[in-house]
Amino acid sequence: MSASNLPDAAQAAMTDAVLAANLKTQQEKGPDLRQVHAKSHGCLWGEFIVEEALPEALKVGIFSSAQTYPAWVRFSNGSEPEQRGKLKSDHEPDARGMAIKLMNVDGKKVLDDEEKTQDFIMLNHPVFFVRNVQGYIDLARAATDPEIAKSMQPTFAILKQISSKVVTNPLHIEYWSTTPYKLGSQAIKFAVHPHTETIESTVPDSENYLREAMVASLTEARQEARFDFLVQVFVDEEKTPIEDPMQEWKAEDAPYIKVATLRIPSQPFDFEERKRLDEGLSFSPWHTLPDHEPLGSVNLARKKSTRRSPKPVATPFNSASENLLLISLRRSKAEL
Ligand code: HEM
């Protein structure tokens, strides 16, 4: 399984260029916030319940046995802040993200900046908008170079599909990994499917209507949220390519298999202490056991760029801080 479809030196140089551009934007627009996915709709605690009767081939890594992991789940908009001190309105065209951090995970990790965690990061679309890190660079250049812009039409088409989706509650939509990952010696993509789907054509006026919708269903109406966590297994390079996250792995070629349930109980979450926890958390596909290591050029670029950028509230995630997160999670549970 390849790590990138680009030569090593090119992959490294382009990753540094993406990181530098993102850091510059972050310095300008929100040094205390994430470079992208800056706006959170909520950071929620939940349980990730691994299925009991999994096929032997899928019993790998965190899916080895029917365990229940405590989890933090963050819902976000994809963009950077609008300007310093101002996050974009939910009415702006944007992608929606979902990031899951499992806790109490045993085993040595790929990176050593966190212990006992496993992250899964997704967007609300089955494909990503660039093929590799070169595409990310070209996208930035397309604004000033018409030739590059012409070659980026497929990227613009995907961005338009993502940003024209009407989302009324982040807890009621599907999310996909878009890029592939290892599952032991196999390759997979993963996705979540909500038990409750809301498809409406109009959205409220408020510019924070997505957080408000989550407060309304999860806190006020006391409705828990549940998602099936699903995997698709690699078939062949034509139907399920590793190196082209712009190509969908179709369900008819690689059927979705349920491997776990994510349960997010009814809870209060719209308060300052939780928001501080949210800002201090760092989600990365590279916070992983080797059995679930990310694959392909886009994922490789994330190894450097999605490790938490310097922030005043950066949380070193070691045994001590992990304990704090578990205590905070238990306390939230007890408050119900
Ligand atoms: C070249 C490719 C990519 C780059 C350079 C990149 C960069 C970043 C950066 C810098 C962050 C903020 C990290 C932080 O400060 O904590 C981030 C967050 C995020 N990225 Fe990416 N990303 C890439 C690809 C992807 C892909 C393929 C997905 C699809 C699932 C994705 C989904 C997300 C999500 C959902 C978050 C928010 C995580 C959270 O809630 O903290 N990214 N990305």
Overview of the structural elements:
It is a single chain. By secondary structure, the protein is α+β, with helices and mostly antiparallel strands. The relative contact order is 0.20. It has 8 helices and 9 strands. The longest helix is centred in the first third of the chain and has 22 residues, at 8-29. It has a single domain (8-334), classed as Catalase HpII,  Chain A, domain 1 (Beta Barrel), CATH 2.40.180. Strands 1, 2, 3, 4, 5, 6, 7, 8 and 9 form a 9-stranded antiparallel sheet that branches. Residues 18, 22, 34-37, 74, 76, 97, 99, 121-123, 128, 133, 136, 177-179, 282-283, 298, 301-302, 305-306, 308-309 line the site of protoporphyrin IX containing FE.
